[in-house]
Amino acid sequence: MAERPGDWVVIDLGTAHGSVDEDQRPDAGHRRGSRRWRLAGAAAVLLLVCGGAATASPPFRPTASVRVEPASSVSVAGDLLIVADPAPPGTAGAATAAGDGGTAGGDADTGQSLLRGYDLPSGTERWRVQLPTAMSQSATRLGDLVLVASRDSIRRQTGTTAIDAATGAVRWSRDDAVLTVPGAGAGLAVDEVRSASSAGSRVAGRIDSIDLATGRTLWHQRVPSTAVVHAVAGDPALAVFVLDSGQVQVHDLTTGALRGTGMLPPADYAPDNPRLIDDGFVLRHPDGREGQRVALSAYNLDNVGLEWSRPDRARDVRWADCDGNLCGRTPDGIWTLHLDDGALAFATGDGLPWLPVRGSDDQLVFRLLPDERVAVASGGTTTAPRPLGTLPAGNRDCRVGDTALVCRGADGRQLEIFTLPHP
């Protein structure tokens, strides 16, 4: 929670590698239109309205609550609330799934922690399961699976466990990180580089494409040094490797077939650089043109060919996919660029700070009001913001799912569940 009125409070929208799956992946044109009308699926950072407008918004009232420990890890995965509690010393017992009698296999011991799944927005417990203890755990919903990522003290992912979303039964487990994309039946299992300053920024060694239903390896490849790796939705879904040398390899995610290669200019390669969007990506890199320092260049995924390039004067920029355009969040506001030609599509011009939002591209922004309540606004990058309401004072560490906001209370021992209004 921010300490002063006017400070910005950012809601964590789940986890870094994936989002809720849908019955069928829509095409790019349908995605751009439908995102504007999905409250939890709005693909843009949402501009907070001024204090007066937010104060006039109706209050959110909790519809359910869940007791937790202050040290519990909390995730929202679609219509599920996932709570991971460290088990007390000496705890033992079989892992069970409420209602179905499913098991995780094996007994719990002092190296196990309890994972609980709750329905949203009702807060009814659906299942519980024992998993190996980690410094932190987070969950992502993919169809009928929940992928639980375990992380160590430097935030490096050390394992992934796939759990049946309905029963809590463990489907499979791996000792690496798994990168996923909505609509794809395969993912990329990778080993994150061990670095206290950049855990997760690059991967090294062997990269496996895996069947998400079973955890089985479909194909694999080794990178010579380190690389930035992305899974990209589409038909077919793609695996994109950006090597340290600037070489780009585009593979079929399921079969491993090489579909294209190319070279990129020298850049500070990271998970958000290049930024993968629709059928291409945008790279921030040093600009060789006279009088310019940084450039934005767009490339296609067919042959890694250059589509357009323009000077980039933004500092401390964070990228997002805003209704199919490229969305930049900076301390000076938010603006979007057309992917076709890099032209400016929209800019707030308000000078309000925009802070990074972790997790998926479903985003809401909150602001602390003078009376300690938290204002909530919704909208798109090309429309005026729409006030949704205010949260009671003391709520913090919020996350959003398909139908609900989940916030931790002031004492850290209770999660309040707020049902989101229908769009």
Number of strands: 33
As a whole number of angstroms, the C-alpha radius of gyration is 21 Å
CATH level-two architecture = 7 Propeller
CATH class category label = Mainly Beta
Indicate how many domains the architecture comprises.
1
C-alpha geometry: globular
The assigned structural class equals mainly beta
Distance between the termini: 27 Å
Order of neighbouring strands in the sheet with most strands:
13-14-15-16-17-18-19
Q: Helicity, in percent?
A: under 10%
What are the segments in which pLDDT stays under 50 over at least 5 consecutive residues?
1-56, 90-109, 351-362, 380-384
Mean pLDDT rating: 73
Percentage of residues in DSSP E strands: over 45%
CATH fold name? Methylamine Dehydrogenase, Chain H
Largest sheet composition: 7 strands, antiparallel
Protein name: Outer membrane protein assembly factor BamB
Region (Disordered): 90-111
Domain Pyrrolo-quinoline quinone repeat: 114-262
Organism: Asanoa ferruginea
Structure write-up:
- With 423 residues, the protein is an all-beta fold.
- It contains 2 helices and 33 strands.
- The strands form 8 sheets. A 7-stranded antiparallel β-sheet has the order 13-14-15-16-17-18-19, with no helix packed on it. Strands 1-28-29-30 form a 4-stranded antiparallel β-sheet.
- The longest helix has 7 residues.
- The protein is globular.
- The two termini are 27 Å apart.
- The N terminus is likely disordered.
- Pfam families: PQQ_2.
- It comes from Asanoa ferruginea.
- This is Outer membrane protein assembly factor BamB.
